[in-house]
Structures are given as structure tokens and as C-alpha cells.
């Protein structure tokens, strides 16, 4: 079986996909969001640790909770987005390892070193959030990731009393192409890569 995607799929995921700032009124169903996560969870993580956690902020009440944490430049576009994902990670991710990595007790790899646990969780949850963006694009949604928010306020509003902590936000929906900025340049292979 060939794993090569056709040009249309590559365009939808990468070359023509854009980070959206404006949104249409077209709704996003819970079923579609579940499909996005079902794809997201299949991406690789270290020892299948899967520390990513995602809150799909959709209701007016939840958006009101999120609003005080948003920077001025991100407020209007985030409130207008049909869905805002709080991409988070579980600081106690290793508690799930007996389920996720059952052939060896891997909890001790992380419980003995908070620094290793933090680095592993943050790295792999960030990977999973990237997978979520690609999964959303693959299923016909547009995404607008952003980091202009007060992490402490988000954690207090959404994660108080839990082991979850926020990483960044991702607006999801059907983008309004008229509100896109021009595509910014990217580094060339020679600028960003080495072949040793």
C-alpha cells in the first residue's frame, strides 16, 4: 500500500492551509470534534504516554470564562471562532501508563524525576496539539493556533483542582478567507536544515 498522499491532500494539510483569524457562522458538531480527536490520538508519543488533554470551548458560558485570559489582539477572533481548543497536558500523565504502555511498568521512569516528567509531558502534548491541527484540516476544518493568553487565568478557570495545565489555544471552524493576511515567508531547507 502506498502511503504517498495526493497533491490535494498535501495542499489541505500544508501548502494551501492557512492560520485563520476570521470565521464563518458555520457550526462545528460535537461528532466532528470527536472525529478530530480520534485521529489526533493515533499520532506517536514517547512510550505512548499521550499526555495531551483538550478542552473544546464552544458554549457562550465557556467563552465568557476564557475571555478574561485572552490578549487584546486575540479576543475578538477567539470569541468569534465556533470552537476554541485549550491544548493542555496532564502533569500526572504517567498514571495512565499501565493502560497505555502495559508491557512494562513505565511510571517509575517519570515519578522519580519531576524534570523528566515535565519535559516529556510538555514535548509530547505539544506534538499531540500539532496532530490535532492536522487532523482538523484533514476533516475539513480550519485552524488558528495562538499563544497570546494568560496561562494562569486559563488554568484557574478551567483546570482548578486537576492535574491539567494549558499549553496554547487553537481556534477551529470554517475560516473566512477574506480575513486572511498574506502568507509570510518560510526558511529554506539550507537555512533550517543540516545534513550531517
Characterise this structure:
With 196 residues, the protein is of the alpha+beta class. The protein has one domain (19-175): NADH Oxidase (3-Layer(aba) Sandwich). It has helices at residues 7-15, 30-40, 60-66, 72-80, 97-100, 108-111, 114-138, 151-159, 189-192, and strands at 52-57, 83-90, 142-146, 164-173. A four-stranded antiparallel β-sheet has the order 1-2-4-3, with helices on both faces. The mean pLDDT is 96.
Give the overall average pLDDT: 96
Biggest sheet: strand arrangement? 1-2-4-3
- Uncertain runs: none
- Approximate shape: globular
> Which CATH architecture would you pick?
3-Layer(aba) Sandwich
What is the chain-wise order of helices and strands?
Answer: HHEHHEHHHEHEH
What is the makeup of the main sheet?
Answer: 4 strands, antiparallel
Percentage of residues in helical conformation: 40-55%
Strand proportion? 5-15%
**Tally of discrete structural domains:** 1
- Oligomer designation: single chain
Mind telling me the CATH superfamily name?
Answer: NADH Oxidase
Tally of strands: 4
Number of helices: 9
CATH fold call: NADH Oxidase
Distance between the first and last residues' Cα: 31 Å
InterPro entries: Nitroreductase (IPR029479), Nitroreductase-like (IPR000415), Nitroreductase_HadB/RutE (IPR050461), RutE-like (IPR023936)
Family: Belongs to the nitroreductase family. HadB/RutE subfamily.
Protein name: Putative NADH dehydrogenase/NAD(P)H nitroreductase GCM10007935_41090
EC number: 1.-.-.-
